[in-house]
């Protein structure tokens, strides 16, 4: 009886305290980092997140060099070997988990999933943890995912973040969380970047990748642009052939790079193997602007997954495709499409003189079509007609791009 009473009192206290969720600024040994202001917060959890018991969590906010409203936000998810504080400390040293280091003109939000047992970034870990994956399978987010998203939204409001420039990144387990949480929340994140993600099961479940299908009553937000780099000689990268295929078949924007750099986190060392990993400016993508998903492209390197993992070659998918927005109105849309040139990108890879791809326009703000609606397109001297797919997306197959920009024009 006494145990029951104590449990009820704890639950009541948990519910009352967390009902008005308000992270508290706490004293810290360090209040600056790399010349930037740093704040440490603690908080309880919201009942609606679904945690089985009360817990305390921490997160860290790093300010831009010069505080300002409407700054971008750089959100970081740490690896399994770190917590939020060791993750932040990595940024003191160049070469130590470089993806953790945010640009000086961004706010940075560092979250934690190590303090409380069983959190991780989705409750499961990777392909080897079959029991945990089964427990956390499916499309419904678990408590930690809800906590991440509510903390991001809290930071956006408190610091007056530009809602069109919120970015998510992570290393290893944090890379897995980046794919799984980021792809599912494209209504918040403009773009995401995963450094050697420790598995693709999280994103596969939350995005209903095959063999699953998206339920009829589920509407997935328009996804962010995704950057992923993984080592084929890294056992944690298993399954990337399924991930790449699912991204291509769904017409999601993917820039993917690989090489035998293992489970690395030092950018300069990775670039000795594949110098493309920072070649796409993912932090220039805005959530309120159209972007292009290139699929079925020529010029992509053959994937070493699943049967050629000892192949020492570095490779890429979609590495050289670029776009520039011109017009987006209710009656027409125009984008310039091209391949990055050797003058603009110094790389050991051979940039093709031309490459063709299917071109899907995403996040059109004003030029919108209902499923099945007809449209006309022009691309240089080429022209044609098409119909929007069941999601209202516009895809033009087989366009050939060169380093010389060509305008793709759309009309109803």
Summary tags:
eleven-stranded mixed sheet, disordered N terminus, Rossmann fold, 27% strand, 412 residues, 2 domains
Structure description:
With 412 residues, the chain is an alpha+beta fold. The chain folds into 2 domains: 12-288, 3-Layer(aba) Sandwich (Rossmann fold); 322-412, no CATH class. The chain has 8 helices and 19 strands. The chain has helices at residues 2-19, 84-90, 130-135, 143-158, 173-184, 201-206, 240-249, 267-271; strands at residues 24-25, 32-33, 36-43, 57-62, 73-77, 107-111, 166-171, 191-195, 225-230, 254-258, 291-295, 315-317, 321-328, 332-339, 354-362, 374-379, 382-387, 394-402, 406-411. Strands 1, 2, 3, 4, 5, 6, 7, 8, 9, 10 and 12 form an 11-stranded mixed sheet that branches. Strand 2 (32-33) and strand 3 (36-43) form a beta hairpin. The longest helix has 18 residues, at 2-19.
Write the layout of secondary structure elements.
Layout (H helix, E strand, L loop, with lengths): L1 H18 L4 E2 L6 E2 L2 E8 L13 E6 L10 E5 L6 H7 L16 E5 L18 H6 L7 H16 L7 E6 L1 H12 L6 E5 L5 H6 L18 E6 L9 H10 L4 E5 L8 H5 L19 E5 L19 E3 L3 E8 L3 E8 L14 E9 L11 E6 L2 E6 L6 E9 L3 E6 L1
Parallel strand pairs: 5-6, 5-7, 7-8, 8-9, 9-10
Antiparallel strand pairs: 1-3, 2-3, 3-4, 4-6, 10-12, 11-15, 13-14, 14-19, 15-18, 16-17, 16-19
């Amino acid at each position: 009886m006494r145990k029951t009473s104590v449990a009820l009192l704890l639950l009541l206290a948990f519910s009352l305290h967390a009902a008005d969720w308000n992270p508290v600024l706490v004293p810290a040994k360090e209040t600056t980092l790399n010349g930037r202001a740093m704040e440490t917060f603690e908080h309880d959890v919201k009942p609606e997140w679904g945690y089985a018991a009360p817990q305390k969590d921490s997160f860290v906010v790093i300010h831009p060099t010069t505080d300002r409203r409407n700054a971008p936000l750089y959100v970081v998810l740490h690896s399994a070997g770190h917590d939020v504080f060791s993750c932040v400390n990595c940024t003191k040293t160049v070469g130590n988990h470089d993806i953790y280091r945010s640009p000086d003109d961004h706010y940075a939000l560092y979250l934690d999933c190590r303090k409380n047992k069983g959190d991780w970034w989705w409750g499961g870990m990777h392909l080897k943890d079959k029991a945990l994956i089964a427990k956390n399978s499916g499309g419904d987010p678990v408590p930690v995912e809800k906590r991440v998203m509510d903390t991001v939204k809290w930071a956006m409001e408190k610091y007056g973040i530009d809602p069109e420039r919120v970015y998510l990144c992570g290393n290893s387990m944090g890379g897995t969380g980046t794919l799984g949480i980021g792809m599912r929340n494209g209504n918040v994140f403009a773009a995401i970047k995963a450094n050697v993600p420790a598995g693709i099961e999280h994103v596969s479940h939350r995005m209903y990748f095959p063999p699953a299908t998206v339920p009829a009553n589920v509407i997935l937000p328009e996804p962010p642009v995704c950057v992923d780099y993984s080592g084929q000689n890294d056992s944690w990268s298993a399954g990337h052939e399924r991930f790449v295929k699912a991204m291509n078949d769904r017409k999601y924007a993917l820039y993917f790079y690989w090489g035998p750099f293992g489970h690395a986190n030092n950018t300069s060392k990775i670039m000795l193997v594949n110098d493309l990993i920072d070649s796409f400016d993912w932090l220039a993508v805005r959530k309120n602007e159209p972007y292009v998903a290139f699929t079925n492209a020529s010029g992509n390197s053959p994937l070493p997954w699943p049967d050629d993992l000892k192949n020492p070659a570095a490779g890429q998918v979609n590495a050289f495709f670029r776009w520039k927005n011109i017009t987006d109105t209710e009656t027409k849309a125009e984008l310039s499409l091209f391949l990055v040139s050797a003058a603009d990108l110094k790389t050991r890879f051979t940039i093709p003189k031309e490459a063709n791809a299917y071109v899907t326009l995403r996040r059109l703000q004003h030029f919108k079509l209902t499923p099945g609606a007809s449209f006309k397109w022009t691309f240089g001297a080429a022209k044609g007609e098409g119909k929007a797919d069941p999601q209202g997306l516009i895809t033009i197959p087989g366009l050939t791009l060169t380093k010389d920009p060509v305008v793709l024009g759309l009309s109803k």
